[in-house]
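Protein in question reproduced for absentees:

***
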Amino acid sequence: MRVMLIVAAAALTLAGAEPRAQGGFPPASFANLRVLPKGSTPASVIGQMKSFTGALGVRCQHCHVGEEGMPLDKFDFVSDSKPAKAAARAMLKLVADINTTLDRDWPGSGKSGRVSCITCHAGRTTPSGR
């Protein structure tokens, strides 16, 4: 269950401002996952990314290099140039830590005792309560 909550996009620092296409979408595999398990399938990663967009009310270009209307195979999903991507990774680690603590301190709580992005964000880029 923890693996499902620890999620992030593929990441590799790249030089240059021009987006570099990954050669197709979805890619066959990911070169450098920092939070997701290295062997994550494209379907799993894309599913998690869709949950992020819903939880924060954003689109892909919020964290990734690309523009609205641009074909997904032209996005530079690997680039770390957007600060929102680093923030997302930090938040995913926070969610995992919270859920680990809840599992330990509230055994048997199941799904009702878990948090996810939508718990605090509720469709907004800034978590509620700020």
